[in-house]
Write a structure and sequence with these properties.
The chain is of the alpha/beta class. Helices cover about 45% and strands about 10% of the residues. It is built from 13 helices and 12 strands. The strands form 3 sheets. Strands 2-8-7-6-5-3-4 form a 7-stranded mixed β-sheet, with helices on both faces. Strands 9-12-11 form a 3-stranded antiparallel β-sheet. Helix 3 runs antiparallel to helix 10 and helix 11 runs parallel beside helix 13. The longest helix is centred in the last third of the chain and has 24 residues. It is globular and about 65 Å long. The protein starts with 7 loop residues before the first helix and ends with a helix. The model has no long low-confidence stretch (mean pLDDT about 95).
C-alpha cells in the first residue's frame, strides 16, 4: 500500500554523482591507503585565530545560548554591508537588503523556495554547481541550460554568453523568470568583468527576469584581476540578488555562514520563509563571523596567496608528469581537461581509475552537467608537498596509457 505513495520531488533528483568517488575513497581509507584528496572544496586550514577566540568567548555567555535571529543578528548584517562598502563601494541596507544564511548553499535553496512557483523556469549555464540547477527542480520549477564558453585564461566569452542567453529567453516556455550566474565560476573557475554585469542588468530590465549572482569565491582572485559585484552596476538591485559565503575566504566552511543581499522584495521573501523554517544560526558563530568580516582582511590575503602558490606548484609539477593545466584567474580550483590519452574514458571512469590506480581523488566534470564530461575539477586543498607527491603518482598512472 505505502509503496504506491510517490515522492515526486525526490524522484526528479538524480543520484549524486560524486558519491561514486566518495564511496571508493572511503573504502580505500578504511584499507589504510593514502589518498591525496583534491575532490571536495573543503578548506584545509584554520580560520583566523581572532575569530576562534571570539567564538569561544561568546559561547561562554549565558545570554547567547537561546534562539537567535533567523535573518541574522544586526551586527553581522551590518558587518556584511561594511564589507560591501569597503570592497566594492556598494551601499546596502542591513535591515532590508541583507539576510544571513547557513552557508550560501542553504541560502540559495531557501531563496529559490521563497520566490519560485511550480512551473516557473530558470536559466542556468552549464557546467554548474549542482544546487544552482537542482534547487529549482526541488521546488517544482524547470531549468533551461546552455554551455559556458571561455578562453584558455578562463575569461568568459561575453558575446557567446549573451547570444545563448537571448536564444534561451526566446525559445523557452514559459518565459524564464530567473537567470543564475556564478563568477568566479564553480567548477570552471571562469571569471567575468564588470562589463558583463552591465549588459546582464540591461537585458534583465528589458526582458523582465531576475538575476541570482553567486560570488562565493569573490576573494580568491589572482594577478591583475579583482572580482566585481553585480551591485557595482547602477540599478542592479532592481533586478538582482547576490550570494556570498565565509566558507572559502576565511577557512570557515563548517561554520555555515553565508549571505543573500540585494533586491528588497526578494530579500523580504527570503527573510519571511526563513522565519517559518529556522531560528537562526548559533549566536556565537554569528558574533565570530562579524569579527571575521570586520578585522580579517589580512588573513584573507594570506589565504589567497596560499591558493595561488598551490596552483602554481600543481601546474608546474603536473606538466612535468604529462598533464598540462592552465592557471585560473580566481577560485580555489583548477578545471582540467582530461589528458588526451585518457579522454575516451569520460570524466567519471577517469576519476575512478585515477583514484584507484594513482590514489588521487578529483571531482568528475559530469557531476556538474553534460558539458563538463571532458573535464575534472581539482580542489587545491592539499599542501604543496602532497601536490608534488600526487604529481609523482600521476606520472606512473599516465605512463600506463602509453602502451
Amino acid at each position: 500500500m505505502f509503496d504506491e505513495i510517490v515522492f515526486g520531488k525526490i524522484n526528479r533528483l538524480p543520484k549524486y554523482l560524486f558519491s561514486a568517488i566518495n564511496e571508493i575513497k572511503m573504502q580505500m581509507r578504511q584499507d589504510n591507503q593514502d589518498v591525496i584528496d583534491f575532490s571536495m572544496g573543503n578548506p584545509s586550514g584554520m580560520p583566523p585565530k581572532i575569530v576562534i577566540d571570539k567564538l569561544c568567548e561568546s559561547a561562554r555567555k549565558p545570554k547567547n545560548q537561546g534562539y537567535s535571529v533567523s535573518k541574522g543578528i544586526y551586527k553581522l548584517r551590518l558587518a556584511l554591508c561594511d564589507w560591501y562598502k569597503r570592497r566594492f563601494n556598494v551601499t546596502l541596507d542591513p535591515n532590508l537588503e541583507v539576510c544571513v544564511s547557513m552557508g550560501s548553499k542553504e541560502g540559495f535553496v531557501h531563496l529559490v523556495q521563497a520566490i519560485t512557483n511550480v512551473g516557473d523556469c530558470a536559466i542556468v549555464p552549464e557546467p554548474a554547481y549542482p544546487i544552482h540547477y537542482h534547487a529549482f527542480i526541488i521546488n517544482g520549477a524547470n531549468v533551461s541550460t546552455f554551455p559556458i564558453q571561455y578562453n584558455n585564461s578562463y575569461e568568459l566569452d561575453e558575446n557567446a554568453f549573451f547570444t545563448s542567453l537571448q536564444n534561451a529567453l526566446y525559445e523557452t516556455f514559459p518565459k524564464p523568470k530567473f537567470v543564475v550566474v556564478n563568477f568566479p565560476h564553480n567548477p570552471t573557475t571562469v571569471i567575468a568583468y564588470k562589463s558583463f554585469y552591465e549588459k546582464l542588468v540591461r537585458l534583465a530590465k528589458k526582458e523582465r527576469f531576475y538575476i541570482i549572482s553567486d560570488i562565493a569565491y569573490a576573494e580568491l582572485y589572482f594577478d591583475d584581476f579583482k572580482t566585481p559585484s553585480i551591485f557595482e552596476v547602477k540599478g542592479a538591485k532592481d533586478v538582482a540578488v547576490e550570494t556570498y559565503t565565509l566558507s572559502k575566504s576565511y577557512n570557515m566552511a563548517g561554520w555555515r555562514i553565508g549571505f543573500v543581499s540585494g533586491n528588497k522584495k526578494i530579500i523580504a521573501a527570503l527573510q519571511k520563509i526563513k522565519g517559518w523554517i529556522d531560528y537562526g544560526i548559533y549566536t556565537p558563530i554569528q558574533v565570530a563571523a562579524t569579527v571575521a568580516l570586520n578585522k580579517c582582511d589580512d588573513d584573507v590575503l594570506k589565504i589567497r596567496n596560499m591558493y595561488e602558490k598551490r596552483i602554481d606548484v600543481m601546474i608546474e609539477s603536473f606538466k612535468k608528469s604529462g598533464w598540462e593545466l592552465y592557471k585560473p584567474k580566481a577560485s580555489m580550483f583548477i578545471w582540467a581537461k582530461i589528458p588526451q590519452q585518457c579522454l575516451h574514458l569520460g570524466s567519471l571512469e577517469f576519476s575512478k581509475r585515477l583514484l584507484q590506480e594513482a590514489k588521487i581523488a578529483v571531482s568528475p566534470g559530469m557531476g556538474f552537467g553534460k558539458a563538463g564530461d571532458e573535464y575534472v575539477r581539482i580542489a587545491l586543498i592539499e599542501n604543496e608537498k602532497r601536490i608534488r607527491q600526487a604529481a609523482k603518482n600521476l606520472k606512473k598512472f599516465l605512463k600506463s596509457f602509453d602502451n
